[in-house]
Design brief:
The complex is a heterodimer of chains A (245) and B (140). Chain A has three domains: 69 residues; 37 residues, no CATH class; 76 residues, Cytochrome C3, CATH 3.90.10. Helix content of chain A is 26%, strand content 9%. Chain A has ten helices and five strands. In chain A, a hairpin with a 7-residue loop joins strand 3 and strand 4. Chain B is mainly α and 140 residues long. Chain B folds into two domains: 29 residues; 92 residues, Cytochrome C3, CATH 3.90.10.10. Chain B contains six helices and three strands; from the N terminus they run αββααααβα. Chain B has a three-stranded antiparallel beta sheet. The longest helix of chain B is centred in the N-terminal third of the chain and has 23 residues. Classes of the chains: A alpha+beta (245), B mainly alpha (140).
């Protein structure tokens, strides 16, 4: 435990060292001699500046590796879920109003969780009557016109087929939000594919913006009808013409 | 000291270095709530902070239909060309932020809360998260 906190401070010193003049020589020199012998309980009052100036007994040379070899070159990770407005990077902390705004987590207390988007399962929240958003701007007793009709869309690829449920949508939206601007109301009349959705068209007008987003964890929300047990992915023509062995 | 402990110690050293880098040396990243909209067609130019509209907050109180069908908000960030003139005429945000359904328009700092210079955008959208453009199916 003590060792760890001490080492974290040493890391602090190391970063200072890396960003210092040693960089220009192609390697980084760390003078770690005095560090090893220090009593472990020395850590609390540890002064990172002294660390760099510690007596030289052992010189460690770290090759300077190109920054291109980061372990996660392209992984974008949401490190902070549902931050309060002053910490979210888009609200101005010089603005007093920012501190009056509600932190999302306060509002989400008791709502069913999910793994993506707002990390709230909004469909369940309505079904379980945890929230009762108005259907009319003024009249809180007006009920939505819910239509329970599933549209089944077979998918050529190995992922489960898509089922578009009207019920969950008409809880939130009116028919005119989708018909006819986004979808012609006729089964199979609309060409839909994943690239269009990812670019914000078709289902992607809402999914990936306000309704649950497209992530590995959400595929099965839309791709919800399993393929028959004997289903095999169709072979590419190139493979059929030039069979391997 | 044995090799093993030395090794694990250096792991902590690196961890410390990385934590320090992440905390202070790298630029602050944006991690706003999913579906927050920054609207800045005119705000910056008029010398006021951009507007931040929280979808999550409003969808707890209203279905999408209220705004996107009844009040005529189109599905496009910045696409509704909202101005204060329209708001005080009772359109867009002004249909509710009128002192009857919700607090009224004199609370400038509640809506105009964005960091100056932030462009109009939709926070957390899948398009923004794509590392490479979406795959285009081959035309046959």
């Amino acid at each position: 435990m003590k060792l760890r906190s001490k080492s974290v401070f040493l890391g602090f010193a190391l970063t200072l060292a890396i960003s210092g003049p040693a960089c220009s020589q192609g390697f980084v020199e760390i003078h770690a001699g005095g560090v090893e012998d220090m009593p472990l309980d020395y850590a609390p009052e540890y002064n990172p500046v002294n660390e760099v100036a510690a007596p030289v007994e052992e010189v460690i040379r770290l090759a300077q590796v190109s920054g291109a070899n980061d372990f996660n070159r392209n992984l974008k990770k949401d490190k902070m879920r549902n931050p309060p407005p002053p910490e979210d990077g888009i609200h101005d902390t010089e603005n007093e109003g920012t501190f009056v705004l509600m932190p999302p987590l306060e509002a989400y207390e008791g709502l069913p969780p999910s793994d993506f988007g707002n990390y709230v399962d909004w469909v369940k929240a309505i079904d379980e009557k945890k929230i009762a958003p108005r259907w009319d701007r003024i009249d809180s007793s007006e009920e939505p016109f819910v239509m329970d009709m599933d549209i089944h869309r077979p998918v050529k690829a190995s992922v489960p087929d898509v089922v578009f449920p009207h019920r969950q949508h008409t809880e939130w939206l009116s028919c005119s939000n989708c018909h006819p601007a986004i979808f012609i109301p006729q089964k199979g009349a609309n060409q839909i594919n994943m690239s269009a959705i990812l670019l914000g068209q078709k289902c992607g007008v809402c999914h990936g913006k306000v309704s649950f987003p497209i992530t590995t964890k959400s595929c099965k929300k839309c791709h919800s009808k399993p393929k028959p047990a004997d289903w095999q992915p169709p072979l590419s023509e190139a493979t059929l013409k030039n069979p391997w062995r | 000291m044995s090799r093993v402990t030395k090794h694990s110690k250096w792991r902590y050293v690196l961890l410390g270095a990385m934590t320090w880098l992440a905390a202070f040396a790298l630029p602050q990243t944006v991690h706003a709530e999913y579906a927050d909209v920054v609207i800045n067609n005119y705000a910056d130019a008029a010398g006021i902070r951009p507007v931040v509209f929280p979808h999550w907050f409003h969808r707890i109180r209203f279905r999408c239909k209220v705004c996107h069908a009844d009040l005529g908000f189109q599905f496009k960030a910045g696409g509704n060309k909202i101005t204060m003139a329209k708001i005080i005429d009772g359109k867009f945000c002004g249909a509710c932020h009128n002192g009857e359904i919700a607090w009224s328009v004199e609370n400038c700092a509640m809506c105009h809360s964005g960091i100056p210079g932030t462009p109009t955008h939709f926070h957390g959208s899948t398009v923004q998260r794509l590392i490479a453009p979406a795959y285009k199916p081959v035309e046959k």
